[in-house]
Amino acid sequence: MITVTKLRKTFQTPLVQDGRFAGIRTLFSRAYKEKEAVRDVSFEIESGEFVGYIGPNGAGKSTTIKMLTGILHPTSGEVLINGYSPQKHRRRVVNQLGVVFGQRSQLWWDLPVKDSYEILAAMYRVDEGSARRRLGELSELLELKELMDVPVRKLSLGQRMRADLAASMLHNPDILFLDEPTIGLDVVAKRNIRGFLQSLNRDFGKTILLTTHDMDDIEQLCKRVIVINHGQIGYDGSIDELRERIGLPTMMKVAYRGDIQVPESWELPFRIVQREASMLTIACNRQELKAMDVLRVVSSWGDMDDVHMEEPEFEEVIHGIYK
């Protein structure tokens, strides 16, 4: 459904001149420096996939999204949406896409929410009956009935995001591009947005590409994750495979009923990261070593009372791929 091939985007900025009247000379200068925002990015997304597209600030996420939607033209490479270029066949492609930019609304600031929907329905040439039916479904899913007569500028951030999501789905697109849709939202608002997105993907088969800095969004919503850093793809696969690739240790806390007799050396590759009177905290890579093997060794060091295991936080896994 989405094919990206060797996508590259560079931006040019004027070189700043030195000395007197530097600002004026810079204004008329033809000297530029080039910054490569995206470099040889390639991936494919199949129909019905929910893919996370993540990376640190400045990695190239938003630039990629803008090229996928046709807002920006790539310096080189190609984007195809169902076989069509969003740059060359804009009218054909735009009806298949829904787009939400978390920090920018597509609604009219001073108009009531329902008026924005009427304008958007006319722009996408959605007939009145279809628009009314879809808006009724979206209003129920996103709890928008009480917001319809409220000017957009008076909505809270969470309310505006729900209204923007409904606007992006008004023409019933097959593909949804989301750029930071939960940024700045409270816990309740995030949960509502996630539930709606899960429903779109699971119940309606929508293909979704999500960029976010919220790792809970990725872990709860996405089966596949693409990591971009310095404009290049660093990883493309499942979350479980990503955990295995990074190999962050599992932390095992072993409590004893009495004293602990730790030998100077032991036979398995794990390490003690903290030792207390009757507690050991042990780090081990479970891709290389079974937990039962570790427990078999440490059980001989004293009378074990309890064991607690903590897997690495997903955010730690992601930071590992950024390095």
Write a brief structural summary:
The chain has 323 residues and is of the alpha/beta class.
Description:
With 323 residues, this protein is α/β, with parallel strands linked by helices. It is built from 11 helices and 13 strands. It has a 6-stranded mixed sheet with strand order 5-6-7-3-8-9, sandwiched between helices. It has a 4-stranded antiparallel sheet with strand order 11-12-10-13, with helices on one face. A hairpin with a 3-residue loop joins strand 11 (271-275) and strand 12. Helix 5 runs antiparallel to helix 6. The chain is globular, with a radius of gyration of 26 Å. The protein starts with a strand and ends with a helix. The model has no long low-confidence stretch (mean pLDDT 87).
Distance between the termini: 31 Å
Estimated helix fraction: 25-40%
How confident is the prediction overall: mean pLDDT?
87
**Number of separate strands:** 13
C-alpha geometry: globular
Helix and strand pattern: EHEEHEHEHHHEHEHEEHEEEHEH
Unreliable segments of 5+ consecutive residues: none
Major sheet details: 6 strands, mixed
Spatially, the strands of the biggest sheet line up as 5-6-7-3-8-9
Q: Tell me the β content.
A: 25-35%
Number of helices: 11
Rg over alpha carbons: 26 Å
Class derived from helix and strand content? alpha/beta
Question: How is this fold's topology laid out?
Answer:
Elements: E1 2-14, H1 22-28, E2 32-45, E3 50-54, H2 61-68, E4 76-81, H3 90-94, E5 97-101, H4 113-123, H5 128-142, H6 157-169, E6 175-179, H7 187-204, E7 207-211, H8 215-221, E8 224-229, E9 232-238, H9 239-246, E10 250-256, E11 271-275, E12 279-284, H10 291-298, E13 304-310, H11 314-322
Parallel strand pairs: 3-7, 3-8, 5-6, 6-7
Antiparallel strand pairs: 1-2, 1-4, 8-9, 10-12, 10-13, 11-12
Helix pairs in contact: 5-6
